[in-house]
Amino acid sequence: MLTQIVNARILTPQGWLKGGSVLVRDNKILEVTNCDLAVVGAELIDAKGCYIVPGGVEIHVHGGGGRDFMEGTEDAFRVAVAAHMQHGTTSIFPTLSSSTIPMIRAAAATTERLMAEPDSPVLGLHLEGHYFNMKMAGGQIPENIKDPDPEEYIPLLEETDCIRRWDAAPELPGAIQFGRYVSSKGVLVAVGHTQAEYEDILAAHEAGYTHATHFYNAMPGFHKRKGYKYEGTVESIYLIDDMTVEVVADGIHVPPTILNLVYRIKGIERTALITDALACAASDSKVAFDPRVIIEDGVCKLADRSALAGSIATMDRLIRTMVQKAEVPLADAVRMASETPARIMGVLDRKGTLEKGKDADILALDGDLNVRAVWAMGKVVEGTNKLF
């Protein structure tokens, strides 16, 4: 099938094309051009001046549509993935909060089944924990948290190849060995839920930790002990130029001024936007998968209000927040939602930008940055065809 999207403002790696078109054949981008002359035999779609940008690559999300990936079932995965796709996500790495080994195995089996399907948006599994600093547990389930255990993580990585990312606190006993082993398997290792200071982060980076989980959340900044000042995890990660970060760009987890600061310091190519969304995102449900969690002020919190526990954000909200509140140019916000996470997760060869030969993952946004259409692998996502 041949499809041509015309009358669009198209974001390419070289910048914006005004009045151009995108030609799609089946699941691939056939051409991106500044010419909008109709191609014979193509289904013509008038973008009505919308922004045509790459679909979002979500690298940290716990659920949506009322379902959580910790459930581990195929039904839960499909519902949550579909819910986020309606808001502009076209590639997704389902995320588990700190879980038991049986829960991880169940989710891994489901992930492998979905990854094996043709044109699947599921690209791999992300384990957020369970090797975290208990003092920085935040919304994690505390009874599941422990120090890194090679008798757990080595067998898991030997028996499945769907785990693409694993987060840990590098100051824990055994965390450096964990980082070395996991990164040697081609898995992204990220710093998270940690009290690490500069020497810890340096050692972690040398051991393979290259990314920071929900930057600014569940990690300390500049602080004092007995009158002496110490750099926190935040400053330490800023100081290591090639460490990448992700931010929950809902405007609540990280205020817009700090979102702008991260953008200025780390830059577009080292900053990814994430939702860190829970089951209640993209849903009418007001109930989170975790019974300890409440929804209040547009965000998920622990019921005692001691910590944020996740968001109800979707990909389109991330882009709007960065542009409308953090005052970041649209092109840069989109790149941080698509190109940068694709690069971080090693899938930029086929995802993250609108280029000839890449997967036809496309998002149409109107002037207010609301979703008008989503194509995933060349197919219109159900419920998003507001252009035609």
Describe the structure.
- The structure is a single chain.
- Helix 5 packs across helix 6.
- With 388 residues, the protein is α/β, with parallel strands linked by helices.
- The longest helix is centred in the first third of the chain and has 15 residues, at 101-115.
- Strand 9 (89-96), helix 2 (101-115) and strand 10 form a beta-alpha-beta unit.
- It folds into two domains: 2-53 and 355-380, Urease, subunit C, domain 1 (Roll); 56-344, TIM Barrel, CATH 3.20.20.
- The two termini are 17 Å apart.
- Strands 1, 2, 3, 4, 5, 21, 22 and 23 form an eight-stranded mixed beta sheet that branches. Strands 6-9-10-11-12-13-16-17 form an eight-stranded parallel beta sheet. It has a three-stranded antiparallel beta sheet with strand order 18-19-20, with no helix packed on it.
- The protein is built from ten helices and 23 strands.
Short description:
The chain has 388 residues and is of the alpha/beta class.
- Tell me what portion of residues adopts beta-strand conformation: 25-35%
Question: What about the largest sheet?
Answer: 8 strands, mixed
Task: Provide a count of the helices.
Answer: 10
How many β-strand runs? Answer: 23
Supply the number of structural domains. 2
Low-pLDDT residue spans: none
CATH fold name of the largest domain: TIM Barrel
In terms of structural class, how would the helical and strand content be classed? alpha/beta
- What's the average pLDDT? 94
CATH H-tier superfamily of the largest domain: Metal-dependent hydrolases
Q: What would you call the shape?
A: globular
Helical content stands at 25-40%
Under the CATH scheme, which class of the largest domain? Answer: Alpha Beta
Measured between the Cα atoms of the first and last residue, the distance is 17 Å
In angstroms, what is the radius of gyration?
A: 20 Å
Supply the CATH architecture of the largest domain.
Alpha-Beta Barrel
